[in-house]
Amino acid sequence: MSTLTIDQDPHDKPCCNCFGKRARYKSEKSLNGHSAIVCEKLEFPMPVAYAEDLPNALAKGSTIVVSGFIHPDCSRFAINLTSPNKSGDVDIPLHFNPRLDRHYIVRNSRKRGRWDEEETASAVKSNLERNKNFEVVVFVATEEFLISVNGVHFCGFSFRFPLNTCKRLEIEGLVDVSRVSFKNWSSYPEDNPERIPRIEFAKQDEEAVTSQILALPYTGNLPEGFEEGWQLEISGRIKLLPHSFYINLQDGAQLWPHPIIFLHLNPRFNTSAGENVFIRNARYGDQWGPEERTRMFPFTPGSPFTIAIRRGFDRLSIWVDGQLSG
Fold first, then answer.
1. Alpha-carbon distance 277 to 268, whole Å?
2. Where residue 271 sits, what CATH number does that domain have?
3. Contact present, 184 and 56 (Cβ < 8 Å)
4. How many CB atoms sit inside 10 A of residue 216's CB?
5. Which domain-ending residue is among 184, 217, 242?
6. What are the residues facing 244 on neighbouring strands?
7. What does the alpha-carbon distance between residue 323 and residue 320 come to, in Å, rounded to a whole number?
8. For the CA atoms of 176, 128, 60, 263, what is the dihedral angle to 10 degrees?
9. How is residue 314 annotated by DSSP?
10. pLDDT digit string (tens) for 33-61?
11. Which end of the chain is more exposed for a tag (fewer CB within 10 A), N or C?
C-alpha cells in the first residue's frame, strides 16, 4: 500500500525565558554611596501534578502517554524527564513546556542548573486549550524523542543526554493527570489504518475526484498502489510568504521507522543562496539519493497551482500547471 503525505516546513517562533523564571529588579547602594540596579532571576515552582520514577529504562520504542485535564486558569505547564546529577541537583533531558497564553510549545533541556537552547518550531500549531482534556505522547526513536499532542504529531526533539540518564517523569502546572501509561510501540505513530483516509481514483470515463481544502499535514492511502498509467493531481495555493512545502509518495504513514520515499517533491522559496529551488529526490532506508533540480521554478507566492504526478513504465514524470517540470 502506498501513502501520500503533504506538509509545509515549520517556521521558528520567538523565544522567551523558560518556564518558572521571572526577573526581579532591586536598587542597592554601594560602598561609595552610588545606587546600582541588580537583576536577579527567581524560581517560582509550579504545583507538581505527577512525579514518579520510570518503571523501566528508556529504549527505542519506549512510549509514554500522559492524559489529563487543563485547568481554566492554567497559563503553562511542563512535562519533564529528569535525571539526578553528581552535584545533587536535577538535570532535565526533556522539558516539554506548553505556553497556553502564547499558543506555542517550548522544548528544552537543563544541565547543572543551566538551560540549553530552546526549540519552538513545529509542523503544526498547538491544539492544547484551557478547560479541556489533553493527551501527550512521548516516543523514543533512534536519535530523538517524537512527540504528539492530542493524536497529532507535533515535533521531534534530538537527544541531548544519554537515554539511560532519564530516571523520572515529572509533570508541573495547573493540570489534573488522569493517567500515565508506559508502553512499547513498534512504529510511530501507532498503526491505526482507520485514521488515514483513502484516496479514490477516477476512471478514464469519469470526472476527476475533487475534495475540499485539506488541513496540513495531510496523509492519504492509495489502496491499490500507484500503477502504470495513473495520474495523481494535487491542487492548492501558495502562501504569500512561503518557506517551503513537500509532497511524498511513500510506503507507509509512519514517521518511525522511516518509510521508503519513492518520490519527494520539495519547492523551496528564497533559500540561503537567495534562489527558489524545486528539488526532487527519493529515500531508501536511512539514505537520501542524489537531488535533482530544475532551472524552472513554476511556483509563485499567493498563486494557485496544480501538480500532476504521472506513472510511466519505468519512471515518474512531474507536471506543474500543464508544464513538464521533471
1. 5
2. 2.60.120.200
3. no
4. 14
5. 184
6. 268
7. 5
8. 170
9. S
10. 555 555 444 455 789 999 999 999 999 99
11. N
